[in-house]
Amino acid sequence: MILKDSLKSALSVLDPSIVKNLHRGFIIGGATMYAESLALPISSTEPTVDRVLLTRILSPEFNECNVLMPDFLISEIMHWRRSTHAELEEWVGFEVPEGEQEENAVKYEFQMWVREQ
Domain residue spans in the chain? Predict the structure, then answer.
């Protein structure tokens, strides 16, 4: 695990040979890191984001939150497709609860979005 305060600083510590052979890496918050990583162009030689694993909160709305994940679906440059539940499970390699879930009065759903070229 590498903890850094920006995407650029995190990528700078990676050995190029590791990046070349890296199959999966995960970016875990916050909002600035998400925005930086989602803006990366698709590349066959540089790190890129081609999937978003998302726990979408359905309710309540949490209006008091002031930091949110950027709405990556509004981009006119990048196009995203919501995967099927079977594709999500196949990609992660384990069973994932399907459909709306509820815990402590919070309704949510697990989703995977795939970037289309």
Answer: 1-49, 50-117
